């Protein structure tokens, strides 16, 4: 979806609302495809005293794999995004400003795709108290106890043998 920013660039107080579904089903992230369903994007570009302010909210359901226990789970993700937009820059400083193309068009699908990807978490847990997997036996500690046999301190091995005989 492209917005023609020229329509409101010279009209303070005007707005260009937008609403669309963003398809990120082809996105690979950490070996998985986290966005199999469309992401809803809605917002507007408003001319505020000559400055074009872009506000957007992205919402979607992510299909993830827990980084501790390797179990699949889903989570809702909402991203709020605000920035300034411009048709052209005079001084070339573009740190926090998105720039329209030569025709005054702003490619929202590309921009919102980048915004969503940059807001994906680097660590995904199915729950904050996920216990993960035992490094020894591989048991999912959320579902079952560890199956590892406790190692006996060699200094206490003779005592352990006496305890086993009883």
Overall description:
By secondary structure, the chain is of the alpha+beta class. Helix content is 14%, strand content 34%. The strands form two sheets. It has a five-stranded mixed sheet. A two-stranded antiparallel ribbon has the order 1-7. The longest helix is centred in the C-terminal third of the chain and has 11 residues, at 108-118. The mean pLDDT is 87.
List the helices and strands and how they pair.
Layout: E1 2-4, H1 6-9, E2 15-22, E3 39-48, E4 51-65, E5 72-86, E6 97-99, E7 105-107, H2 108-118, H3 157-165
Parallel strand pairs: 5-6
Antiparallel strand pairs: 1-7, 2-3, 3-4, 4-5
Percentage of residues in DSSP E strands: 25-35%
The number of strands is: 7
Helical proportion? 10-25%
**Number of helices in the DSSP assignment:** 3
Spans with pLDDT under 50 lasting ≥5 residues? none
Q: What is the radius of gyration computed over CA atoms, rounded to a whole number of angstroms?
A: 26 Å
Largest sheet: 5 strands, mixed
Distance between the termini: 77 Å
Structural class: alpha+beta
Order of helices and strands: EHEEEEEEHH
| Spatial sequence of strands, sheet with the most strands | 2-3-4-5-6
Mean pLDDT: 87
């Amino acid at each position: 979806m492209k917005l023609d920013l020229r329509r409101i660039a010279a009209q303070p107080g005007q707005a260009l609302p937008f609403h669309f579904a963003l398809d990120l089903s082809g996105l690979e992230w950490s070996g998985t495809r986290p966005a199999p369903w469309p992401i809803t994007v809605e917002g507007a570009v408003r001319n505020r005293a000559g400055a074009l302010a872009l506000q957007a909210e992205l919402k979607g359901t992510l299909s993830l794999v827990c980084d501790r226990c390797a179990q699949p789970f889903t989570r809702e993700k909402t991203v709020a995004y605000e920035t300034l937009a411009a048709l052209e820059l005079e001084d070339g400083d573009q740190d926090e400003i998105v720039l329209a193309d030569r025709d005054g068009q702003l490619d929202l699908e590309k921009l919102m795709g980048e915004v969503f990807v940059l807001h994906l978490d680097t660590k995904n847990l199915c729950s904050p108290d996920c216990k993960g997997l035992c490094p020894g036996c591989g048991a999912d500690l959320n579902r079952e106890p560890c199956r590892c046999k406790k190692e006996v301190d060699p200094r206490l091995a003779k005592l352990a043998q006496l305890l086993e005989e009883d």
